Amino acid sequence: MKEQLQNIRERAKQEIAATATLQDLEALRVQLLGKKGELTAILKSMGKLSKEERPVMGQLANEVRGDIETALTEKTAALEKEALQKELDAMPLFDLSEPVKLEEGSYHPITLVQRQCENIFKSMGFTVEDYSEIVSDYECFESLNIPKHHPARDMQDTYYLTNGQLLKSQTSAAQNAIYKKYRDALINDGVPIKAIFPGRCFRNEATDACHENTFFQMEGVMVDKNISISNLIYFMKTMLSEVFQKDIKVRLRPGFFPFVEPGFELDISCLICDGEGCPSCKHSGWLELCPCGMIHPEVLKAGGIDPDEYMGFAFGLGLTRLAMMKYGVKDIRDLNSGNLKALSQFTDDK
Ligand code: FA5
């Protein structure tokens, strides 16, 4: 029996070592140690042994059983590890230490054009001002030489709030505050007022390809002694050639705004249709882009500046329309659409 037990141990160890799967190992365990297993059969036959032999064989049988169980446990662990490794190898690589690649956002085309204009004017000595979107009637109209009930108010259908204030319909609404902010430096120290103030404007518009109810403008003013229309034209030309980096057709025609005298409309030849006429330019071939003019004496007076001594120019650039022209956006409404597919394709390359 001793030999039988030792044989079983040796054979079991070899067979366990050669087993390739967990199922085969379980089958081997049943075959060796199960109710009808080989070792169990030997243990059952112990009764036939002599009194002296029984404890010796019993101890050996227990040792053999223990050795087989240890070999089974070790092999189970090895096969499980192997199976896990196979599973991991089949999985796509996932390295926690690897830097996570985040989707990058992009600037809105209007922001890109606004920043570009800001940089152009900053390089020419202009300050960039921020201004509220909710303004008073005085700021938006009265200080700009548009008294209550004046028909010029009809040009801008405005959103009024219940407290009497309104959503700014034009960036010109900041002019009065800018004059008051810088007039002391102008009068006492001879520092010209040179400021631009980009901002969002709101009008109750019937929207179309070139009109939105919410759009951006960028106002610019310059006040000093001896300012002329030539200065105005110089700054407009510089700005447009920098933004477009190519020759574009521009026309200047008389325009009426109560806060400038004389006033002009500066139009650019539509870059969507090359001046042929399309919905983006209301089929005229031209797009109103940047009305401008010499600041009306009443407006300077309201800002605390003596119009007999000082003069200046002002312009109101349509930033949203500029973005349309620069990036070839046919319908202005796409710019407010939140359509990331459309909006994320623009870069600030010139
Ligand atoms: C004004 O708002 C004047 N404050 C501009 C100004 C400033 C004139 C200083 C003189 C001196 P206007 O309403 O034309 O003017 O608007 C100016 C520009 O804003 C237009 O040429 C156009 O480019 C843009 N704009 C006006 N309305 C809309 C709109 N509904 N949607 C998109 N852009 C618009």
Q: Layout of SSEs?
A:
Blueprint: H1 2-18, H2 22-33, H3 38-44, H4 53-90, H5 109-123, E1 127-128, E2 134-135, H6 137-140, E3 166-167, H7 175-189, E4 193-202, E5 214-224, H8 229-244, E6 250-254, E7 260-269, E8 286-288, E9 292-295, H9 297-302, E10 311-318, H10 319-327, H11 340-343
Parallel strand pairs: 1-4
Antiparallel strand pairs: 2-3, 4-5, 5-10, 6-7, 7-8, 7-9, 9-10
Helix pairs in contact: 1-4, 2-4, 5-8, 5-10
The structure holds adenosine-5'-[phenylalaninyl-phosphate].
Adenosine-5'-[phenylalaninyl-phosphate] (FA5) binds at residues 170, 172, 203, 205, 211-212, 215, 217, 219, 257, 260, 263, 288-289, 291-293, 314-316, 318, 320-321, 332.
Q: What does this protein look like?
A:
With 350 residues, this protein is an alpha+beta fold. Helices cover 41% and strands 16% of the residues. It has eleven helices and ten strands. The strands form two sheets. Strands 1, 4, 5, 6, 7, 8, 9 and 10 form an eight-stranded mixed beta sheet that branches. Strands 2-3 form a two-stranded antiparallel sheet. A hairpin with a 5-residue loop joins strand 6 (250-254) and strand 7. The protein is rod-shaped, with a radius of gyration of 43 Å. Adenosine-5'-[phenylalaninyl-phosphate] binds at residues 170, 172, 203, 205, 211-212, 215, 217, 219, 257, 260, 263, 288-289, 291-293, 314-316, 318, 320-321, 332.
